Structure prediction request, 257 residues.
Amino acid sequence: MLSGRLVPGLVSMAGRVCLSRGSAGSGAIGPVEAAIRTKLEQALSPEVLELRNESSGHAVPPGSETHFRVAVVSSRFEGLSPLQRHRLVHAALAEELAGPVHALAIQARTPAQWRENSQLDTSPPCLGGNKKALGTP
Amino acid sequence: GGGSAEQLDALVKKDKVVVFLKGTPEQPQCGFSNAVVQILRLHGVRDYAAYNVLDDPELRQGIKDYSNWPTIPQVYLNGEFVGGCDILLQMHQNGDLVEELKKLGIHSALLDEKKDQDSK
Prediction:
């Protein structure tokens, strides 16, 4: 019987996570990651910007820069709905999203919201995308 | 298949809850699409339209153009684009999803759970 809480393991809420820069396997920051960071800094003047390359968790070659997770804390989000906030982020990254970036998980909070809750979400496990032919029972 | 704006407009308005996924509710092929399926399942939403963009490249691009949203999954409630997985998760966590479903005449299963818990 499912409880009211989200199925465990589906999306786990990270505690106080120590996020390192250069999150791709090799530890180096790729050009796409650098561009994302620069553009979000310019567009949103964030108080906090945590950017994570999650490509290594997906069905793409090593060193890919296709799947990202970003947490942005900015006063520019005040008064905006979640949808409007996400669209602001998309607008800043239009080039990357039309290009190499295939998935972008976003947490967009105002400074007040961040002080209330600075937990960072983590992404659910990849299910293979269109590269994996899942066997049917 | 097809991804014209008119076709998609009709598609998202045809059902109260419409989602565009990678894969199907029975067999999601993307963790983020699966999250949408699981959230709807938690709320006991069974009657919803799910379209698999992996089956149809025109649909896959067309729905992104239609909503001006670059990624899949996409969630529509009452014909209106609501957002992707992150937004649906947020709505689930803060109670907004229960409210939005109520407006559509859908009684979330979580309300019954809460009632059961309260009455113990």
About this structure: Residues 5-119 of chain B form a domain with the Glutaredoxin fold (CATH 3.40.30.10).
